[in-house]
Amino acid sequence: MRLRYFAIALLALPGLAQAAVTLPAVLSEHMVLQRGLPVHIWGKAAPGESVAVTFRAATVTGQADPIGKWSIFLPAGDAGGPFDLTIKGENTIAFNDILVGDVWVASGQSNMEWQLRRTDGAEAEIATANFPKIRRVKIARKVADFPQDDAAVDAWSALTPQTAGAASAVAYFFAKNLQSSLKDVPLGIIESFWGGTAVEAWMSLRAIGDDPGLMPIFANWARTVENYPNQLAAWDRRVATWNEQVAQAKAEGKPEPPKPPVPAGPGGLNTPTGLFNGMIAPIVPYPIKGAIWYQGESNANANQFPVYSRAFTAMIRDWRRAWGVGDFPFLWVQLPNYKTNGYWPDLREQQRQSLSLSNTGMVVSIDVGNPTNLHPTNKVEIGTRMGILARGMVYGEKIAWSGPMFRSAAREGADMRVWFDHTDGGLTAKGGTLQGFEVAGPDRKFVTAESRIDGTSVLVRSAGVPEPVYVRYAWADAPECNLYNAAGLPASPFRSGNN
Questions:
Q1: Is the dihedral of CA 38, 43, 45, 48 positive or negative?
Q2: pLDDT for 136-159, tens place per residue?
Q3: How many separate helices (H) and strands (E) can be counted in the chain?
Q4: What is the DSSP letter of 415?
Q5: Where are the alpha helices (DSSP H) in 366-406?
Q6: What is the predicted pLDDT for the residue at 261?
Q7: pLDDT tens per residue, range 153-191
Q8: Residues 6+ apart with CB under 8 A from 433
Q9: Measured between alpha carbons, how far is 158 from 155 in angstroms, rounded to an integer?
């Protein structure tokens, strides 16, 4: 009798009673599959059920394991389509209009999330957005305590005037610029982002736990959780005041004031590992070409910026390990110019230092931000520069794909000579006299310096620092700076020395 009840209980468990073949939500009609890598199709079925997948005239059969999971790889192929995809078990799932090309993950926080419809020139851009070979899918927001095997999505769709407005603006302009070069290669964008999120939320527990140097992440989170009750009580009081303000605004026919943001705490969007578990883990079985990233604002503070480069590079290695398709290209946007708390220059430097990791690239945006708006609406330039970066660095196109990057500096008498990489066509001071440089002696007290371009290097000096040791450039939240290469790409802010 007990065995009978045990069998009934097992059948009642999710997955074991399920006989129909099912797929994760990210696998659907209109999707783009990665060229040059085995096609991976996976899902659930009854334990032991035979599943056959047919794609491009190849059929591969597999079997669901004891807990009902199955995974099938089909031969790699070149770009093309549309193709049909069929999955057969006890039931049959048939998809049409499947393309094969390059798939990129677009992730980060609100500036990656920023929709095309909210950018400069949106109306005209959306009206002409007819790109049947560029397709996107959006992963729903979710915080999870452990890695998920599925996630809700906004279904795959091509970019058209009816759909493009909802797309990430940076990802849209990235894909548009990239396809102008790749021509007939379809592009797939998997959007997985959430405004206001810190880098540690996008890392796995393994990635944080493997590095003792990242223990401050847990220390910071412990303080957040400890302070949560007081923060929540204060938030309740602010909400009560806000409700009164809303009632008054309605009575006066005025717009409602914004609701106070919920304080950080248990289960919140910045829970370490929470977004990796809920929004990245479900898509790592999906082979990709690479990732683009726009984040850092939420880590630009005294407690978090000192370990940002360490955490960020650990996250990149973590994603590469999880996807298992090699050290794929990882490209990011350096923080733009914005008047804030004084820690943005330090965070930018942490981002620049992260380029030490192989197969990575960075878009400099120090000239296209908005000093008074956290969300600059000129996403055209940022996304386009991201596309140019990918075309040159990833796809090998013979173009200038980066602005000048600090290489080294050395004293020459009363001057500091600064050398750069990516001086394509030479250096130029856009708009007039070169500005943005500072020098310091051994005391590290920086002062504004005179600077001039000398070939592919810059000479920097100050009468107040007769024996210069250190140099820095664009070292302010919203600096005045104008060094570019001949391709019109701006130099990255930097600081010489180890501090």
A1: positive
A2: 999 999 999 999 999 999 999 999
A3: 10, 23
A4: E
A5: 379-389
A6: 87
A7: 999 999 999 999 999 999 999 999 999 999 999 999 999
A8: none
A9: 10
Q: Which residue has the tokens 């992440």?
A: 217
pLDDT in tens, 362-385: 999 999 999 999 999 999 999 999
Q: Kindly list the domain boundaries of the chain, sorted by start residue.
A: 219-268, 405-495
Tokens 């102008």 belong to 180
Please give the single-letter amino acid code of residue 96: N
Question: Does residue 15 carry a pLDDT above 60?
Answer: no
CA triple 77-78-80, angle to 5 deg: 115
Alpha-carbon distance of 23 to 39, in angstroms, equals 14
The three-state DSSP-derived secondary structure of 430-475 is CCCCCCCEEEECCCCCCEECEEEEECCEEEEECCCCCCCCEEEECC
Cβ burial 102-133 (10 Å sphere, 16+ → b, else e): bbbbbbbbbbbbbebeebeebeebbeebebeb
**Could you tell me how far CA 348 lies from the centroid of its own chain?**
15
DSSP one-letter code for 413: T
Helix, strand, or coil here: 395? coil
Does residue 86 register a pLDDT over 90? yes
* Token code pair at residue 217: 């992440």
Closest CA to 29 of 76, 78, 86, 72: 86
DSSP class of 277: I
310 within 8 A of 216, measured Cβ to Cβ = no
Is the distance from CB of 360 to CB of 256 less than 8 angstroms? Answer: no
Smallest Cα–Cα separation from 199: which of 167, 221, 166?
Answer: 221
CA distance 354 to 405: 13
Contact predicate 191/137, CB 8 Å = yes
- Residue whose pair of structure tokens reads 């192989």 in the numeric block: 358
Percent of the chain residues past pLDDT 90, beyond the cut: 94
Distance CA(287)–CA(323), nearest Å, equals: 7
Q: Token pair of 401, please?
A: 């794909």
Distances, alpha carbon 43 to alpha carbons 10, 69, 232, 248, in Å: 20, 6, 40, 52
Mean pLDDT of the chain: 94
- What tokens were used for 193? 């982002």
Instruction: Name the token pair of 35.
Output: 């060229």
pTM of the model: 0.93
State how far the alpha carbon of 444 is from the alpha carbons of 342, 406, 418, 474, in Å.
17, 19, 17, 16
Lowest mean pLDDT among 1-10, 60-69, 136-145, 426-435: 1-10
